[in-house]
Specification:
The chain is mainly beta and about 625 residues long. It contains 2 helices and 49 strands. A 7-stranded mixed beta sheet has the order 30-32-34-35-37-39-41, with no helix packed on it. The termini are far apart.
């Protein structure tokens, strides 16, 4: 009996112990999974740090634009940079890769590769299949077709795993007669098949999502599929995938219901009405440019892309409804058009360069919950019928000369989110002025941005007390301006603000935290300046060619002195550098007057390691350096 009780107790203990171990193990596994998940989130993607990136105009993705001097020959391009996808490799970058790289791995996010032109040979970083060169991802060596190996070949088989075809890939392949693009390819670059003089047949897959501009330009013998006086390209299952040309004899045209892309680029003087059905997703560059009799067009909401110049010069087109899924209005899309009223869909994030320039636009409305972030340079240039503009909340940037010569623009309301107004954005918008100057409001402050003096002949000006930002080039070339009074509360002075003025002295209030590139360049009569004690750097070319400047006391808030700050300051006698300065760039004090002697007073005892070695001895400029200066 006792033995039986002992056995039962032992079994119970073993059971409990096993259960505890299981729970402990499960807990550890759970912790391990969580730790693994966290570690995955924290793992930084491995890529070549020497790569140079540039944010796209629409600010939704990055481009690879080049590579710094480096000995690295194995290049890895990341899928993301600064939290945004990397989608494009520019021609400058490709040129560098051709000469430096032995291997190059690209991410699957890449959709556009600008090869820079035909028949440029890479050294070693391409993969080869049949008569083609490829760039690959980590798992797919044939991801991107770059170009043919032999431009005199009569055929080229594209690898079945290929996803994109780069710009100029088959350009000038004058002997090739037939191309079969495999299913799975999603992107075809611009000028891809231009000048393929012998190309008769091409099969384009249903998987296609994007076609660049002028892809099939000047293909003299290319055979099209014809439907209702329209010429199409496609494949066996859908011969009408791409509308390439509309017969000039039509006055109206309905695009085939199976068409996804419109790439027409031939001017048509007969078409008055076009209907685009539900299946179309893309209207290419120049698609309807110069359709001088086009009066009406119905665009399906399925369209997500409208290319550059697509409706430019449509002088009889007076109205258009943009598709709701459009995210970008490309450069020059509606330039020189006669459309008077536009409603910008809520999904549009960017309005491109000269998108509406020289048009007869009168009003611009924005759908609710607009996502618009940026307006490109010259976007509404010389829209002389435009009277008012009320931007939605969320707009961040207005580009250079965006509204230049909008002579009848009377009211403009900027949202609280606006951060930047570009150079001359409202130049010659005289009806926006108060008589002497143009201010743009932000929120409840109607004088937030000082934009421009109306006349260049004013010799003295006091900014409004509520002004927070002086925009780029606001006083540029005001050749009579001698005195400017800045208000306490001013926060930013953008680039080239006072360039080419006649000011002799200026005091920057301590509320200012930033002074931009070349703000005082070519102020040849400027003798003295009092800087704000809140700025953290002296921007490049800040005092370039200030030939009368004699003394500068750099405030203790400054950490960086950039290149060419004191370039050609021939009269400079004294510069006081505080202990706070961590970096002085190599060309900060460059000059060209052998007879000038400048005394540099440094609060620190000796040159910091972060300062360039030859700052004060590489120049023709003569320096007398005092270390450990205490002001006594």
């Amino acid at each position: 009996m006792i033995k039986r009780i002992i056995i039962i107790c032992l079994l119970f203990v073993l059971f409990v112990f096993a259960g505890c171990n299981k729970n402990k193990t499960d807990g550890n596994n759970e912790n391990n999974e969580n730790n693994g998940s966290n570690s995955n989130e924290q793992i930084e993607e491995v890529y070549t740090k020497a790569l140079q990136f540039e944010l796209s105009d629409c600010e939704t993705y990055y481009k690879v634009v080049g590579i710094d001097d480096t000995n690295e020959v194995d290049l890895i391009i990341p899928s993301k940079y600064n939290g945004l996808p990397v989608k494009e490799i520019t021609s400058n970058a490709m040129t560098t890769f051709r000469t430096k790289a032995s291997t190059c791995i690209i991410p699957e996010t890449i959709t556009i590769i600008s090869s820079g032109g035909p028949n440029l040979v890479f050294n070693n970083c391409l993969n080869v299949y049949d008569n083609g060169y490829y760039l690959g991802t980590k798992d797919n060596p044939y991801f991107a077709f770059i170009e043919t190996k032999d431009y005199q070949a009569t055929n080229c088989i594209i690898h079945p795993d290929t996803k994109i075809i780069s710009e100029y890939a088959f350009c000038d392949e004058y002997k090739i007669t037939e191309i079969n693009i495999p299913e799975g390819v999603t992107h075809i670059g611009s000028y891809c098949f231009i000048n393929c003089d012998s190309l008769k047949k091409i099969s384009v897959p249903n998987s296609l999502e994007y076609i660049g501009s002028n892809s099939f330009l000047q293909n003299k013998v290319l055979e099209y599929n014809v439907d209702e006086k329209g010429k199409y390209l496609g494949n066996e299952t859908n011969p009408f995938l791409i509308l390439a040309e509309i017969d000039d004899s039509n006055s109206s045209y309905i695009v085939n219901e199976r068409t996804k892309f419109i790439i027409t680029s031939m001017k048509n003087k007969s078409i008055e009405e076009i209907t685009i059905l539900e299946n179309v997703i893309s209207i290419g560059n120049l698609a309807f440019s110069g359709y001088s009799n086009l009066k009406s067009i119905n665009i399906s909401d399925s369209v997500t892309y409208i290319g550059e110049y697509a409706f430019s010069g449509c002088s009889l087109l007076t109205e258009i409804k943009l598709p709701k899924n459009l995210t970008v209005i490309k450069d020059y899309t509606f330039a020189y058009s006669n459309i008077k009223n536009f409603t910008i869909p809520s999904n549009v994030v960017y309005i491109g360069v000269e998108a509406f320039a020289y048009s007869r636009i009168e009003t611009v409305d924005f759908e609710r919950n607009s996502k618009l972030k940026k307006i490109g340079m010259l976007a509404f240039k010389k829209c002389s019928n435009l009277v008012s503009f009320d931007f939605p909340n969320g707009l961040i940037s207005i580009g250079q000369e965006a509204f230049i010569d909008c002579s009848n623009l009377e009211s403009f309301t900027a949202p609280a989110t606006l951060e930047k107004i570009g150079y001359n954005a409202f130049d010659n918008c005289t009806k926006l002025s108060d008589g002497n100057a143009i201010y743009i409001g932000k929120g409840d402050n109607s004088h937030y941005y000082f934009v421009r003096l109306v006349s260049n002949s004013i010799n003295e000006y006091t900014l409004h007390e509520d002004t927070k930002v002086i925009t780029e080039g606001a006083f540029l070339q005001c050749s009579s301006l001698e005195t400017v009074i800045l208000p306490n509360g001013l926060e930013r002075i953008e680039g080239n603000v006072f360039s080419y003025t006649e000011i002799t002295h200026i005091t920057i209030p301590n509320s200012v935290t930033y002074i931009g590139f070349g703000a005082f360049r070519n102020c040849q009569k400027l003798k003295t300046i009092v800087l704000s004690n809140q700025i953290t750097e002296l921007s490049a070319y800040l005092f370039e060619n200030c030939m009368s400047l004699q003394e500068v006391n750099i405030p203790s808030s400054v950490k960086i002195i950039n290149n060419n700050v004191f370039d050609k300051c021939y009269s400079l006698k004294k510069v006081y550098i505080p202990w706070s300065v961590e970096i002085i760039e190599k060309k900060a004090f460059v000059s060209y007057d052998r007879n000038t002697i400048c005394s540099i007073y440094c609060e620190i005892d000796k040159k910091p390691l972060a300062w360039e070695d030859d700052i004060f001895n590489r120049n023709i400029f003569k320096f007398q350096i005092t270390w450990g200066y205490t002001g006594e």
